[in-house]
Design brief:
This protein is of the alpha/beta class. It folds into two domains: 2-119 and 308-337, Quinone Oxidoreductase, Chain A, domain 1, CATH 3.90.180.10; 122-280, Rossmann fold (3-Layer(aba) Sandwich). The chain is built from eleven helices and 15 strands. Strand 8 (142-145), helix 4 and strand 9 form a beta-alpha-beta unit.
Length: 350
């Protein structure tokens, strides 16, 4: 079968389409015929060699996919051939066929497309746990969502809407503001032309209750200073590292130098919380993640959340798919599919 393989660290051309020999699923595993895969920021960082816990090169990237079970390993009782599932892993899912432990698969809800299913797990688990487990989001609170038109951003907006009267501030380039307003962002802010902290203070002098921080570097300090008493900043990435196709030592040095640091003693008098979240380090927490996915499936079934697919790209156009995300052109999720998608599901590439 065909698989996308990261052959070295660097630019878009380092991910190559290769043919791999398949194997039967081991005991406790299922074999899945993959119909759609999700592209995540972590995959871009992995390509540049700045993401932890990935296998040695060459390896197959991909943290999430959706498809149909084609074979069961020994001892698998709670899945059947033909079941439609969503899959979560540290890497290895950008292939036509994958073998995964059964506890890394989750049944797709009725009526969900494979593209939507490939857009659900990473972004929505991240947004859900940040907003509700760390953020403790309550009615009448305010939230700042950075990269609000991205995968986690669109998920977070929808999840905020499940709580009464939450005021959302969202940063994104100006061309995406209409979409953000339609989605429920009260105050879209163009981070390219404005100081988002100043803009927020004009509207809400005391600041906000929760900041989702995927940026890192100096933006974490800005986030912390924007918090109201009892507010929380949740850092879940260092998107500021990604400046060009290849790893930038300048960006790394700058981000490291500017990283936010505070002592426990200083925190006491601030009445604020600083949290860190990385889904990639929760891979052992099967029950925890299973509970979150069950809640998300429930919300999907009730029509309260619906993954927003930006664009769908065949495996052989993976470079263009990564460029779409890295140049921040996407509104919602960038999806990869083994076969070329039908024309109607693929939006114009301009």
């Amino acid at each position: 079968h065909r698989a996308l393989v990261l052959t070295g660290h660097g630019g878009y051309d380092k991910v190559k389409l290769q043919t791999r020999r398949g194997a039967d699923p081991r005991p406790g595993e299922v074999s899945v015929s993959v119909r759609a895969c999700g592209l995540n920021f972590a995959d871009l960082m992995g390509r540049q060699g700045v993401y932890p816990r990935l296998p040695p090169l060459p390896f197959c990237p991909g943290m999430e996919c959706a498809g149909t079970i084609r074979a069961l390993g020994e001892g698998v009782r709670d899945r059947q051939v033909g079941d439609k599932v969503m899959v979560l892993a540290l890497s290895g899912l950008w292939q036509e066929v994958v073998n995964v432990p059964v506890n890394q698969t989750f049944p797709m809800p009725e009526g969900m497309s494979f593209e939507e299913a490939a857009a659900l797990l990473v972004n929505y688990i991240t947004a859900y746990m940040i907003l509700f487990d760390f953020g403790n989001l309550r009615p009448n609170q305010s939230v700042l969502i950075h990269m609000a038109a991205g995968g986690v951003g669109t998920a977070a907006i929808q999840l905020c809407k499940t709580v009464e009267n939450v005021t959302i501030f969202g940063t994104a380039s100006a061309s995406k503001h209409d979409f953000l307003k339609e989605s429920g962002v009260a105050h879209p802010i163009d981070y390219r032309t404005m100081d988002y902290a100043e803009e927020i203070r004009k509207i809400s002098p005391k600041g906000v209750d929760i900041v989702l921080d995927p940026l890192g570097g100096s933006d974490t300090a800005k986030a912390f200073n924007l918090l109201k008493p009892m507010g929380k900043v949740i850092n879940y990435g260092v998107a500021n590292l990604i400046t060009g196709q290849k790893k930038s030592l300048m960006a790394m040095a700058k981000t490291w130098w500017n990283q936010f640091s505070i002592t426990a003693l200083q925190l006491i008098n601030q009445n604020k919380a600083v949290c860190g979240y990385n889904l990639g380090y929760l891979d052992e927490e099967v029950e925890l993640l299973g509970g979150v996915v069950a809640e998300l499936v429930n919300l999907y079934t009730q029509g309260k959340i619906k993954p927003k697919v930006d664009s769908v790209w065949p495996f052989d156009q993976v470079a263009d798919a990564m460029r779409q995300m890295q140049e921040k052109k996407n509104v919602g999720k960038v999806i990869l599919v083994p076969e070329a998608p039908k024309e109607e599901s693929k939006k114009a590439e301009n």
